Description:
This protein has helices at 12-35, 68-85, 98-120, 131-142, and strands spanning 40-46, 49-55, 92-95, 124-125, 147-152, 159-164. With 166 residues, it is of the alpha+beta class. Strand 5 and strand 6 form a beta hairpin. Helix 1 packs across helix 2 and helix 3 (98-120) crosses helix 4. The longest helix has 24 residues, at 12-35. It is elongated.
Amino acid sequence: MTGADGTGREDGAESLLVQEGDIAADYLERLLDIIDFDGDIDLDVENDRAAVAIVGGNLQALVGARGETLDALQELTRLAVQQQTGVRSRLMLDVSGHRAARREELQRLATETAQRVSDTGEPSRLSPMNPFERKVVHDAVASISGVVSESEGDEPNRRVVVLVER
């Protein structure tokens, strides 16, 4: 296999991420067979983590209310990978573009909230979010000057607060 540098070897970290994706794909294919769902598995490496997506029609049951089933499925997949590699996995799982669409929605929310906070000077507390959602909001707010974000509260009611930068 030719690595990214063209030397014929693949970077060790990249190789582990590809291995994680392959293990996750095998696990998810077996799961889809058991529950009799049709879906294709797409693998990628994004932001130094394995990215696995299940795509196909009528997969909403794998997402669940507010993405809770997807979060649980992601955690089970991470555990399956960890069991085989011995390394804690940070892989991201998406089903039918749910996380990608949610990321865009949260980035818009963060930008609008940051603008409102900047205009009014008043802090804004967002609804409780899971860790993935909070990270998306924090990253989006960090790219906007004059405002900062922080998390407050305890799971499952942990939320992002957007404030004017001091």
